[in-house]
Amino acid sequence: MTASPIDARRIRSPRGWLGLAFLAVWLYLISQLLRIFPAGTADAFGLTVPEARQVLAITSGLGQIGLFAGLVAALWRANLAAGVSDTGIRGLGLGLAGVGMLTLFEIALFVDWIRVASPLTDLTRSPALDAGIITGTAVVFAGLASLGVGLARAVDLFGRSRAAAVPPPVSRSEEPS
Fold first, then answer.
1. At a CB cut-off of 8 Å and minimum separation 6, what does 15 contact?
2. Cα 62 to Cα 36: distance, rounded to the nearest angstrom
3. CB contact burial 91-104 (16+ within 10 A = b; e otherwise)
4. How many CB atoms lie under 10 A from the CB of residue 117?
5. How far apart are CA 125 and CA 88, in angstroms?
C-alpha cells in the first residue's frame, strides 16, 4: 500500500544528513587507519597504547553511528517525498533500532573510557560488545535495504506486479459470441 506523495516542496532536502554521513565516513576511516599503528598514535597524542586503542574505538564507533544515522535519515526523507510505503516505514524502524543498538554500545565504551562505575563497563569487557556491534550493524543494513525497497515501491520503479495490474480492456470485436 503506497500513500499519496507529500508535496515535495514541503520536505527539506537531505543534504545535511548526507553531509553528516560523508564526514562520518572520514572519521571512521581515519580512526580505523590509526588503529593499525596504536604505538605511533599513542606517542603522537601523549597517550598510553591501551588509551589510544580506547579512543580510536570510540571515534570509530562515532563515525559508524554518524554514517548510518545520516543514511537512514536521508533515505527516510526521500521516502517521504516519494510517498511512504509500508516497507519504508519498516526500514525506518529497523534503521533506528540498529543505530540505537550501536549508540548503546558506544555509550558503554565512553563510560568505560572515562572510568565511571556503571553496569555498562562490564559490557565492554565481554564478547557481548562485539556481538552487539555486529548485530546493530546488521539491523541498520536491513533497515537501509528496506528503505531502498520502500523508495523503489513508492516511485513505482519496477512497475506494478502482474496481479496488481489492471487487465487491458477487451474490445467488442474480441468478445466471444
1. none
2. 18
3. bbebbbbbbebbbe
4. 7
5. 36
Burial class (CB in 10 A: 0-12, 13-18, 19+), 135: middle
- Whole-model pTM: value is 0.78
- Helix orientation angle between 49-82 and 86-113, rounded to the nearest 10 degrees: 160
How much helix, strand and coil, in percent to the nearest 5, is found in the chain?
75, 0, 25
Retrieve residue 75's grid coordinates. 533515505
CA separation for the pair 148, 55 (Å, rounded)? 33
**Cα–Cα distance measured from residue 139 to residue 65, given in angstroms and rounded to the nearest whole number:** 13
CA torsion, ordered 114, 71, 92, 163, to nearest 10 deg: -160
> Residue 61: which residues within 8 A CB-CB, separation 6 or more?
102, 105, 106, 109, 133
Half-sphere exposure of 127 (CA within 13 A, CB side): 0
pLDDT tens digit sequence for 22-44 = 999 999 999 999 999 999 999 99
